[in-house]
UniProtKB/TrEMBL annotation:
Pfam family, one: TPR_16
Protein's recorded name: Tetratricopeptide repeat protein
Natural source organism: Pacificispira spongiicola
Amino acid sequence: MSAAASQKRLLLVREAVAAFQAGDIATAETLFRKAAADIGGKRNDDPRIPYNYAVFLRRTGRPQDAVYWLDRCLRMAPDHTNASIEKGLALIELGQAQPAIDLLTAFPGDADALRGLSIAAFKLGQWDRALGAVTALPMPQAEDRLLAIRALAELGRLSEAEADGADLAASHPTLKADIAKALTRRSKGRFSLHEPA
């Protein structure tokens, strides 16, 4: 691809990203498709084009299409960390938790990878792994903390789960019902004998 053609495609990608951020999905889609036309997936192509298109596709609810473009990006740039992480997140959305875990464990210092890893492990009932990923997050969000509470409960560490639940409820009172569910749902259908007040 010539330098001029590459620059033209990157300009289209920038315009597509701006349209997406402005909420104009149709324009973003058109611009991304234009930019991605004739991308061959060769190492001399620019990986930013399929990567950005894939992110757009995943965030607009098309994870299967996103995986296709992420694979093309990774053929161009096999060490593209963000593309690998995005692919792991798309695989989770496709219900492929184990392949997602296999991919995301390669990025133990990335918050998005850790968050995805915790979700995938949660879906498979791998409570230790889910808890480990959440505790490795530098700034866990309320949803991450709920997942950790559930993992602690599943691991039989109820006093820790209840203490974390009380702490989360104090800072996020609207989550009390979700915290109660996290404390009482058990993987084998059992419920805690100690119901939170």
